[in-house]
Amino acid sequence: MILPVPSAHDLLRIAPLLGVGLVASILLVTWRLISAMIHPPRRSYSWAVAHNQPGDPGEVSSDPPRFDEFTFAGVRERELPAWTIHNDADPQGPTVVITHGWGESRVTSLPVAVLLLPHVGRVVLWDMPGHGDAKGISRLGATEPDDLLRLLDSLAGPDFDDRPIVLCGSSMGAGVSIAAAARTRDTRLAGVIAEGVSRTIHQPARRILQIHGQPWRVAGRLSLAYLALAFGRPGRLDCARYAAELSVPLLILHGSEDRVCSADDGRAIADAAQRGRFVELSGAGHDDARDACCGPYIEAIRSLLADAVLRYSPSPTPCESSARA
After folding, report:
1. For the whole model, what pTM was predicted?
2. Domains assigned to the chain
């Protein structure tokens, strides 16, 4: 059977229909990408059980550390879950607040917390909105720094008063930590640790979509443009600009094999800070430095912690001021 060859006139007649179909398909893919970005994978206790991983601090070892579970009021969500893990051997040590990356949670941050705990007084882990056990959606760093500031406000009492606080984040959580540090007036803030960070959300989003074979050229750009407008951030969130506002030490950790975030971005952020330091970890990828380069990873963090504690000097109380006079 010989099929008829459409003429130029026939093609012109169906061109509008083809155009409508193309636009509809682009909009459908765009909506799917938007939904995927604001509803990341849930890494909660059930995920940990399914993957034979510790689901809370009480399961990290046969002799687990003491920990508290609490919630605090976020910007849009009424309750965001968190843990405080205590190092009873050094209760006077600094507090490290860990903020996970996109698609991760406080559960997936437990290995980092266990690694850091011997070197600090306590570690605080929390779930950003739309992650882990937290309700809501991810806003891709647009409002999460404000949630982190709410968490810092909730850290009060004997364990936290007059103790230096160091913010520690990976990937999107690194950008959230830098932005929150630039905005806070909390005098306890003594340093920031950022692993696998990018200047903006655009580059890592594009690379993640490309790695997973998702369209980027049209649908990806449209989805990010829509989310930027929807979340009230029409301009790009530049971590280098926030880093320039920091007066505390900033440590940038970057894997040499990171395919998601550019090392040039990490260097630019460190260079923008008054007390910035960039450490490239050979052989590490994106957000796996603790496994690929555990020795250099923990040594760089210990150096930052020592610097942060040395520079930290809480304001004297009225009684202390009178005594010195």
Report:
1. 0.88
2. 42-200+238-312 (3.40.50.1820)
